[in-house]
Each structure stands twice: as C-alpha cells, then as structure tokens.
Specification:
64% helix, 3% strand, mainly alpha, two-stranded antiparallel sheet
Length: 193
C-alpha cells in the first residue's frame, strides 16, 4: 500500500495533523503496518509540494493540520479506481532467498524451507487468533487486513510445500572440478597459435 494514498484517504475524512494521521493509519490497518512519524511528515511534505494537500495554520498547541485538496481527491479517486499491478508490488524476498540458496554452496535449502514454513505457520496461527479476538462492526477494516494476511500466509505454506517437492525431484548436475591453472595457461597459449 502506498503511504501517500493512505494519508490522502485519511485526510478525506477531515483535517488531521501528523500524529493523528499516524494513529489513524495504524488503527485502519490493525497496526499491521506501523508507520514512523518521520515517514508521515516526509510524505506530507511531498504531498504538499505536489499540490495534493495543504497545510493549515498551527493550532495553539503548535500542531499543524493538513487538508486534502481537489487535486488530492482526484489522485485518490484514480488510485481507488486503478487495480494494483503485480509488477508494482515489492520484490518477494523469500523467493529470491530460495533461488540464491539453491545456487550457494553449503546452504541446506531444505532447512531454509523448513525454517520459513515454521515461521509462517506461527504467523498464520497468530493472525487467525487476532481475527477471532473481536467481532465488533468497527473492526471490519482490521479483520479484512488480517484476512489478506491469512490468505497470503496460507499461499506461502502451499508454495513452500511445492518448493520442497521440487527439491526432492531436483538432481543437481555433477559439479566439474575447476581446471588446474597450468592447464588454463596451456590452453590459452594453444588458442593464440
């Protein structure tokens, strides 16, 4: 999720200052994506620079609220109307890790898979516990985020099962010993002739 669009969506509710935005963002996502207050203010500065929000005068307490502009509303509406592309999502560190583990000497790939499966199963159990901890109507946004996390964890477990099955079938090609340096030098000399 874009922090930029998350803040715009929150400002669509009404004027807020940085700490209110951070709290509302974390509340809306069930604290599954904690925000650093620095991220909030950096993003607000960019949004203001781009004309999507405007800052208002400071309150007596020294807090500067922000409000969404018409351009910000248009950008937010476009974001909600546009599907998220698979190419827009961050790289999948786990698949990269396993691909590298397969090609790195001395790495027990099965152990990497098993360690990840155990961690994912623990996370899945925790997400499920959290989902059923409350059924108040106002918790629906948080439960939907948890549902997405549960589905992603279940898919990851299925993918790890697939990886493990593929590893059982995989027969690495026999490695060839590196040629002796003198043999390489002789081959180079012969090639030059």
């Amino acid at each position: 999720m874009s922090i930029r669009h998350g803040l715009l969506a929150l400002l669509e509710r009404g004027q807020m200052y940085g700490y209110q935005l951070r709290s509302a963002f974390e509340e809306s996502t069930g604290s599954t994506w904690p925000l650093n207050i620095g991220q909030v203010y950096t993003t607000l500065a960019r949004l203001e620079r781009d004309g999507l929000v405007r800052s208002l005068p400071e309150s007596e307490a020294g807090q500067r609220p922000y409000e969404i502009t018409d351009a910000g509303r248009a950008d937010l509406a476009l974001w909600f109307a546009t599907p998220i592309s698979r190419a827009d999502r961050p790289r999948d560190e786990l698949s990269i890790k396993l691909a590298l583990a397969l090609t790195t000497p001395g790495v027990d790939v099965r152990a990497v898979v098993q360690t990840q499966r155990s961690a994912t199963m623990r996370a899945l159990q925790e997400f499920t516990r959290l989902k059923y901890a409350s059924d108040k109507p106002e918790d629906l946004p948080w439960r939907l985020v948890l549902d997405a996390m549960i589905f992603q964890a279940e898919a990851e477990v299925r993918w790890l099962d697939h990886c493990e099955t593929s590893l059982v079938r995989h027969r690495p090609a026999p490695s060839r010993p590196a040629p002796h340096p003198e043999a390489v030098d002789r081959a180079d000399e012969e090639a030059r002739r």
